């Protein structure tokens, strides 16, 4: 293995010694220690448990049953495979434990797999935390590799004086601080992109297998967060520029990338229609989800961008674009990076529906320009080291401040998780009307699981769902190809209800009925307006909701929290007359 050059003896143009690589590794170690603290020592109430995390974990665990992952629009495939291995490993340990206590039949082995899956459905947090640990390990390895590539870069491509500032800005960026402790696609995708981009911009082309490394990293990046397909002009363009702008090289690179994509995303072949529906259907809904008064989505800018401590960084990004064009040795690559960033900015902020996760590719592209903005100030203001480190510190502190603001909210007790735990302790088989928000976290009684399974298999309810999805413009006789494309969520849910109905004793857990404003996309949801009228009429024993209603409150969950206040009501003592 090639040893790192003695950077501790390198000097800046002013003659000042440059910090050694140890400081860069320390920056990565501090970030990972913070992630471990949030994940293991002081995790939020219920973890960062989100629907997105559950989709990834559920998809992995139930791949053992042959279920199509329900997160193909992200798609988060690397972490899905991690949870598949974790679920498989837990099942294997349980089988070995059972076999050590006596004879075990083939039917018994499959029964233990069901028991393992049911235990996961009752409490997802332990397996999710195990998955987080694997993800943190992967992020740490990628960041350390990125540091090594930065410190081995040719000084013509990356000035030695910029190496430590670049590492600090990469590590203390919002997406590196916030996302890795949560099983969402963004954290690992950020680490994959930074590793790939550093190799593209500063990596040594003579390194053995350099092009293969680029292709594998690109395939893993797209399989982890398909949204990065919109950075392909920069990725593929830079790859071609670095390897030679010839048709033969282009053909090899595109062919190699397709092969790597099929290896990392087998669902491109096995579930092509599902993936196209999930990604491009969701994309069209977000871009054209509602009328806008202007070309840009100023509501998002005013509510999610301007109030943040990083709101001033786009100004530095403009400065960094000029500095990157001036000081990076290849103008064509500089044009690809800046042009791709401009294209993403125009397209993302034109969308009618924007979440902070949608801007991830935009932020990851801009992080390199932020580093060059600090370098540009350093060069244009007389090669003063304090200017470089002051600019670096301000960029990093802005991201840290924004991350701390979010972490502060997440570390507050979760009213949702506390209400969820309480609802599970209500009397067995009591009829409990509850907000659909709890659908992904509550246990199911045998009665609930069987009723929901029947609803999911009901063709009339499914036809009505299709009619709602298409605004009543499609016939109830939907083509089978369209049904299989639209119902991957239902197929996984049916598997889960089958396991829960078989594994749950009849006298355990309340009988939950989930209500929603629009019963719409899930067969077993019931209309909220009618459900509340039925509660007033005495048809349910308890009501768990975020609504403040004039009934006897059994319990209130109103701690300061990032989730809403929830109330638990008992059946009215004097039911309303029909």
UniProtKB/TrEMBL annotation:
Keywords for this protein: Membrane, Transmembrane, Transmembrane helix
Chain ranges passing through the membrane: 21-42, 93-113, 133-151, 163-181, 215-241, 253-276, 311-328, 334-355, 362-380, 386-406
Keyword set includes Transmembrane: yes
Name by which UniProt lists this protein: Uncharacterized protein
Species this chain originates from: Fibrella aquatilis
């Amino acid at each position: 293995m090639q040893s790192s050059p003695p950077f501790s003896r390198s000097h800046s143009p002013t003659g000042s010694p440059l910090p050694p690589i140890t400081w860069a590794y320390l920056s990565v170690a501090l970030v990972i220690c913070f992630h471990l603290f949030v994940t293991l020592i002081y995790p939020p109430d219920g973890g960062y448990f989100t629907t997105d995390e559950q989709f990834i974990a559920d998809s992995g665990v139930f791949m053992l049953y042959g279920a199509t992952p329900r997160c193909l629009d992200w798609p988060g495939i690397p972490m899905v495979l991690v949870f598949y291995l974790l679920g498989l490993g837990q099942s294997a340990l349980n089988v070995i434990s059972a076999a050590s206590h006596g004879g075990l039949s083939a039917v018994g082995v499959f029964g233990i797999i069901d028991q393992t899956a049911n235990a996961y459905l009752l409490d997802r947090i332990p397996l999710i935390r195990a998955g987080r640990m694997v993800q943190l390990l992967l992020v740490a390895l990628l960041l350390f590799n990125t540091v090594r590539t930065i410190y081995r870069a040719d000084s013509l491509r990356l000035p030695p004086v910029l190496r430590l500032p670049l590492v600090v800005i990469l590590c203390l960026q919002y997406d590196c601080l916030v996302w890795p402790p949560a099983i969402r696609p963004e954290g690992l995708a950020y680490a994959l992109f930074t590793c790939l981009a550093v190799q593209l911009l500063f990596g040594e082309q003579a390194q053995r297998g350099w092009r293969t490394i680029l292709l594998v990293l690109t395939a893993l990046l797209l399989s982890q967060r398909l949204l990065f397909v919109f950075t392909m002009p920069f990725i593929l363009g830079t790859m071609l520029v670095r390897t030679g702008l010839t048709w033969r090289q282009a053909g090899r690179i595109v062919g190699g990338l397709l092969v790597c994509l099929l290896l990392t995303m087998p669902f491109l072949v096995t579930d092509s229609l599902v993936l196209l529906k999930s990604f491009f259907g969701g994309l069209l809904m977000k871009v054209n989800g509602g009328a806008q008064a202007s070309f840009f989505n100023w509501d998002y800018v005013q509510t999610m961008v301007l109030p943040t401590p990083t709101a001033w960084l786009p100004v530095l990004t403009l400065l960094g674009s000029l500095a990157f064009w001036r000081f990076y040795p290849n103008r064509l690559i500089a044009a690809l990076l800046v042009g791709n960033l401009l294209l993403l900015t125009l397209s993302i902020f034109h969308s009618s529906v924007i979440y902070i996760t949608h801007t991830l590719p935009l932020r990851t592209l801009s992080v390199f320009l932020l580093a060059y903005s600090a370098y540009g100030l350093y060069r244009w203001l007389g090669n003063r080291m304090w200017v470089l480190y002051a600019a670096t510190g301000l960029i990093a502190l802005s991201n840290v401040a924004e991350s701390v603001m979010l972490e502060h909210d997440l570390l507050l007790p979760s009213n949702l998780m506390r209400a969820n735990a309480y609802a599970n302790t209500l009397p067995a088989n009591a009829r409990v009307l509850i907000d659909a928000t709890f659908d992904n976290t509550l246990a199911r009684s045998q009665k609930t699981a069987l009723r929901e399974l029947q609803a999911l298999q009901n063709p009339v309810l499914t036809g009505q769902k299709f009619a709602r999805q298409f605004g009543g413009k499609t016939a109830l006789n939907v083509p089978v190809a369209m049904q299989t494309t639209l119902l991957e969520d239902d197929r996984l849910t049916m598997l889960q209800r089958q396991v829960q109905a078989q594994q749950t004793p009849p006298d355990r857990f309340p009988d939950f009925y989930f209500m929603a404003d629009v019963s719409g996309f899930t067969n077993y949801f019931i209309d909220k307006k009618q459900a509340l009228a039925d509660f007033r009429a005495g048809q349910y024993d308890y009501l768990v909701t975020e609504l403040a209603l004039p009934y006897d409150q059994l319990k209130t969950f109103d701690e300061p929290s990032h989730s809403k206040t929830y109330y638990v009501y008992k059946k009215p003592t004097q039911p309303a007359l029909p």
